[in-house]
Amino acid sequence: MMRSIATMIAFACALFAAPVLAQQPAPEKAAPLKNVESPVVFAPRIAPASATDPENLLYLDLSTGGRVVIWLRTDVAPKMVERVKTLTRQRFYDGLPFHRVIEGFMAQGGDPKGDGTGGSPLPNVPAEFNYLPHVRGAVSAARAEDKDSANSQFFIVFQPRLSLDKKYTVFGRVIEGMPYVDAIERGEPPANPSKIVHAYIAADGPPAYAPPPPVAAPSPLPVPGAKPAPKPAAAKPAAKK
């Protein structure tokens, strides 16, 4: 009997409580925070390419008198490094001039036309802007206005130019032979441009540096109206005693 009465009381309480619960407003959704910047998440840096692995070393034998060794950074610019390796192994760079060389700034080369408008037959390379700075000895990909227009041309920095950082793809660094870079003839274009005699990848077992053969001096042009120099007189035979 007591159990039946308790059950009836519980049922009655539930009937009276139901309308009260129904009248309670639904909980509001949390509003997004305002004026709070999202944290910037940077991709983790991978280990730098080995500076002793011959596959990562580019040799430039220059007409200025020696070999320049460039450490190629496959960790930050793998596509541009692969392009330079491909062209080097095709002997593309052999004999090309440094066509734009600005004192206190950089030396630019890698253009088969020699005027800054040329490139290789291969497609352009997309930008690989990275954290490496444009300091002395940095090797960076030259490009046109389009950030994805790098191809075969590159420049070597004489003095820091940090305003170029993250606007051009740094893909290497000179680790030996910077004096031969400093000796590159200045000019836009230079009157007597310095050249890349040969380019090699160290892993291919290149020969030791050999200076370019001397260039023969051109014969002087004849002056209009000038008389030819007289021929020396033939020696007279000695008188017999």
Set down the secondary structure blueprint.
Blueprint (H helix, E strand, L loop, with lengths): L1 H22 L33 E6 L3 E7 L5 H12 L8 E5 L3 E4 L28 E4 L12 E4 L12 E7 L1 H5 L13 E6 L40
Antiparallel strand pairs: 1-2, 1-8, 2-7, 3-4, 4-6, 5-6, 5-7
Family: Belongs to the cyclophilin-type PPIase family.
EC number: 5.2.1.8
GO molecular function: peptidyl-prolyl cis-trans isomerase activity
Structural overview:
The protein has helices spanning 2-23, 78-89, 178-182; strands spanning 57-62, 66-72, 98-102, 106-109, 138-141, 154-157, 170-176, 196-201. It is α+β, with helices and mostly antiparallel strands. Strands 3-4-6-5-7-2-1-8 form an eight-stranded antiparallel sheet. The longest helix has 22 residues, at 2-23. 31% of the residues are buried. Mean pLDDT is 84; it is low at 16-22, 29-33 and 36-43.
Quick description:
This protein is α+β, with helices and mostly antiparallel strands.
Throw out a few tags for this protein:
eight-stranded antiparallel β-sheet, 241 residues, Cyclophilin-like_dom_sf, alpha+beta, peptidyl-prolyl cis-trans isomerase activity, signal, rotamase, 8 strands, elongated
Mean pLDDT: 84
Q: Tally the helices: what do you get?
A: 3
Strand order of the largest sheet: 3-4-6-5-7-2-1-8
What share of the residues does DSSP label as strand, in percent? 15-25%
Sequence of secondary-structure elements: HEEHEEEEEHE
Characterize the biggest β-sheet.
8 strands, antiparallel
Structural class: alpha+beta
Fraction of residues in H or I helices:
10-25%
The radius of gyration over CA amounts to 37 Å
Give the number of DSSP strands. 8
Contiguous uncertain segments of 5+ residues: 16-22, 29-33, 36-43
- What is the overall silhouette? elongated
What is the distance, rounded to the nearest whole angstrom, between the alpha carbons of the first and last residues? Answer: 176 Å
